[in-house]
Amino acid sequence: MPPLGIIEGFFGRPYSWGERHDMIRALGPAGYGFYLYASKADAYLRKRWRDPYPEAELEALAAFAEACRAAGVRFGVGLSPYELYRDFDAAAKEALAAKLDQLAAVGLDDLGVFFDDMRGDVPDLAAGQVEIVHWIAERAPGARLVACPSYYSDDPVLDRVFGQRPPGYLEDLGAGLDPAIDLMWTGEEVCSLQVTPDHLRRVTEQMRRKPFLWDNYPVNDGPRMSRRLHLRAFTGRPAAIGEHLAAHGINTASQAVLSRIPALTLIDSYRDGPAYAYAASFRRAARQVLGEEFAALVERNLLALQESGLDGLSEDHRAKLRARLAEHDHPAAREIEAWLDGAYAIGADELQTQ
What we know:
The chain is built from 13 helices and 8 strands. By secondary structure, the chain is an alpha/beta fold. The chain has one domain: TIM Barrel. It has an 8-stranded parallel β-barrel with strand order 1-2-3-4-5-6-7-8. The two termini are about 35 Å apart.
C-alpha cells in the first residue's frame, strides 16, 4: 500500500474548517496519512497568490496544521502561482518568498507546487517550471515537494483547454527535476476510470520517478459531476499499482462526510488485493460512516444518487427520499438534502481555472 492521503482540490463550495478537522479525525486512524489543502476557492493559493493571507485565515490554517500533526497526519498546501513561469523576475521572487515565509510559519510537512489550470503552450515550459521548483526547494528545505505538471494526464482535453502541450514536456520535466521531488499524475484521463500497472510503468519512465497519483475520485465538481453523488466503492485501482506509486491522494467530493465512504473502500482494495469485493466493501464503509439503518437507505438509493443524479430523480422519488432523510439525525443526511436542493451544483461559468 502506498502512502494514502486526502487532496482537497475541487471547484465549488469548499469545506468548512470543522469539516476538515472531522475528516482527519475519521480517516487518519484508518490509514490516510496526509492532507493536502489545495482548495480551488482559496485565491491566496491561486490567482491572488502574491497577496498575503489575512491574519484570521492564517490562524485557521495554522490550527488545522496543528490538528493534523496531533492526529499523525502530514499537513501540506498546494500553491498554484498563476503563470509565474511567464515572468520569474525579481518582483515575482520577492512575492513568492513572502508567501513561502507565511506558509512556513504555519508548519508544512508537504508543499505542492501546481502548474495546472494555466496555459501551457509557451516556449521552454518545462525548463521554466524546473527553475521555479528548484528555487522553492531551496527556501522550503523542511517540506516534501510535490509538483503538478501543466499536463498531468494523457487526456487531450488538457490540450484543448490550455493549448497544445510541448513535445517531450513530461520527459523534459522529469529529466530536469531533482529526483527527490515528486510529480503528480491523474492517469490516462483527468478522471480516470482505471489505473493500471502497465500505464504507471510507462509514466515512471517518462518522469524518471514513480508518479504521485492525484486520483479524481470521488470528486464531483463541474456542471455534470456535481449533479451526482459519488458514493460507490473504488474500482479500477488494483492493489498491484501500489508498488508503482510514490503516493496515492484522492480528490474528495464536495460532500465531506459522504466522501469517507469511498475513501474507506480504497484501503480495502489495497489490503485485500485480488480478494477485494467492491460491493461488500461499500456496505462495510457505509455502515461505519452512517450507521446500519441509514447505510441501508443510501444503498437502496445508490443507483439514483450516483447514476441517475438530480436530472433523473422524479419528484415522487425526491419527496420520498426527503421524508426518509428527515428520520436520520446525521450530517451526511444534511449533505444529501443540500445536494437535492442544488446547493452543490456548479455551472460552467463557476468552473474557473484560476
